[in-house]
Amino acid sequence: MRNPYEVLGVPRTADAAAIKSAFRKLAKKLHPDANQDDPKSAKRFAEINQAYEIIGDEKKRKAFDRGEIDAEGKPRFHGFEGFGAHPGAGAAGSPGGAHFENFSFGPEGFRRAGGGTGARGFGGGFEDILKDVFGAAAAGQGGRRTGFGGMPFEAEDMHQPAGRDVEAAVTITLAEAAKGGTRRVHLPTGKEVEVKIPAGLADGQQIRLKGQGLPGPGAVGDALVTVTIAPHPLFERDGANLRLDLPVTLYEAVLGGKVRVPTLDGAVELNIPPGTSSGRTFRLKGKGLPAKGATGDLLVGVRIVLPKEHDIELDELMRHWRDAKPYDPRRDME
């Protein structure tokens, strides 16, 4: 995946508000609901969601800027610090005087193939590393295992967990949160799995995938997938309800009429009564998000929008109206 800053078209110095604004503009432009005839828009929409998932989150953004994760949120491998990663460490005969020892693994467990002082940074902890990483495979006969240099140690000394959970994240659309669906998710283990998204999932909720974590001697951990719901270009979430800012013309507000209103299930008609003021809210029952025992509503707020072009006739009409029938909508504010 491309650099998330390039995907959203923002510099690395952009603040959180600028990043969110850039994402919302692109999401509105490339949302699949508005580009049903363009298959490329869905791929591009997924790309900007992935980019926002990285740099729209403060912790992930810092981790990406430090080079700890890549553009897909996967950890970057930086090697082990103990292997000569600090001044003074090196091969035999180097100024540091340290060298690496060779090890082999066979029926008798781990064996040292060469002598020496060992690599600096290991100290007495190297045997513990071998136990943690290779303990399950290095089991000997009779419940005994061989440790560093062939030294035996008892199986009960291996305090290794049964398995470890891993964490991943996925961003879904508002429609997927409402109706459910499936998504492919990359796990830190390297696997790519298909995750079922249940209808009514809340933002930040986790899905547990049994047995998709890291293995241990007795069991395998789980994968915890945190779900983020991407901002929608039209709807704002308010619990189980959705809010929509609906632009109407001046004559629709004054004279009333039927207007088309988008919902997650398709457009419906809303009857605007005559004399509707800007800011009035209409409730469409059951057009929100699924919730326990019920479904939320769609709250439609009216916003009167004047024509972009300057209209002389409208100016004259308003002057006549102002002089003939003046009124003060702010009189109760004093």
TrEMBL record:
<dbReference type="GO" id="GO:0042026">
    <property type="term" value="P:protein refolding"/>
</dbReference>
<dbReference type="Pfam" id="PF00226">
    <property type="entry name" value="DnaJ"/>
</dbReference>
<dbReference type="GO" id="GO:0005737">
    <property type="term" value="C:cytoplasm"/>
</dbReference>
<dbReference type="Pfam" id="PF01556">
    <property type="entry name" value="DnaJ_C"/>
</dbReference>
<dbReference type="InterPro" id="IPR008971">
    <property type="entry name" value="HSP40/DnaJ_pept-bd"/>
</dbReference>
<protein>
    <submittedName>
        <fullName>Molecular chaperone DnaJ</fullName>
    </submittedName>
</protein>
<dbReference type="InterPro" id="IPR001623">
    <property type="entry name" value="DnaJ_domain"/>
</dbReference>
<keyword id="KW-0143">Chaperone</keyword>
<feature type="domain" description="J">
    <location>
        <begin position="3"/>
        <end position="68"/>
    </location>
</feature>
<dbReference type="GO" id="GO:0051082">
    <property type="term" value="F:unfolded protein binding"/>
</dbReference>
<dbReference type="InterPro" id="IPR002939">
    <property type="entry name" value="DnaJ_C"/>
</dbReference>
<dbReference type="InterPro" id="IPR036869">
    <property type="entry name" value="J_dom_sf"/>
</dbReference>
